[in-house]
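FAQ

Q: What does a record look like?
A: Structure on top, sequence underneath. For example:
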């Protein structure tokens, strides 16, 4: 099975790992490339222990991330470069394609990490963001629609965005 990268490329300020400038269009193109390498339904779970050491969701870089965290961290490193700086925030109005979200909700037990892959509008429901995720029912899923306005106050307060823009 093809994975994104064994070792992520280095970071160069203002550029993606493919040498192109950091733009939403270029990030989207790299996400599309990842979809070819790891299509919908590709096995990605905690049983296979896809551990990955990254600064994306652990600013100390001291711990490996597994499951959904390893998918999102390795995808982010593939796009931006392993040493790209990370800014952690909770301003969901500033969400961008390529951002990683660690969604938590202690009232429901939710704890999941995924990458923002796009934005859209459902004329019946409203604005949404799309996400790519690993270890969702033990496989990779792409372009799952999610609606911030449906998130509980607890989920919004406990979740974080990790941006490399």
């Amino acid at each position: 099975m093809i994975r994104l990268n064994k070792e992520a490329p280095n970071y160069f300020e203002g550029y993606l790992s493919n040498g192109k400038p950091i733009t939403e269009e270029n990030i989207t193109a790299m996400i599309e490339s990842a979809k070819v390498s790891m299509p919908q339904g590709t096995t990605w779970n905690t049983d296979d222990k896809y551990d990955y050491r990254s600064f994306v969701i652990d600013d100390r870089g001291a711990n490996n991330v597994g499951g959904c965290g390893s998918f999102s961290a390795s995808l982010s490193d593939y796009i931006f470069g392993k040493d790209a700086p990370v800014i952690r925030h909770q301003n969901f109005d500033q969400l961008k394609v390529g951002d990683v979200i660690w969604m938590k909700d202690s009232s429901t037990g939710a704890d999941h990490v995924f990458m923002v892959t796009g934005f859209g509008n459902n004329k019946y429901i409203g604005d949404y963001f799309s996400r790519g995720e690993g270890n969702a029912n033990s496989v990779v899923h792409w372009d799952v629609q999610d609606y911030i306005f449906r998130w509980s106050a607890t989920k919004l307060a406990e979740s974080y965005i990790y941006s490399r823009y």
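Q: Is there anything notable about this one?
A: The chain has a mean pLDDT of 87.
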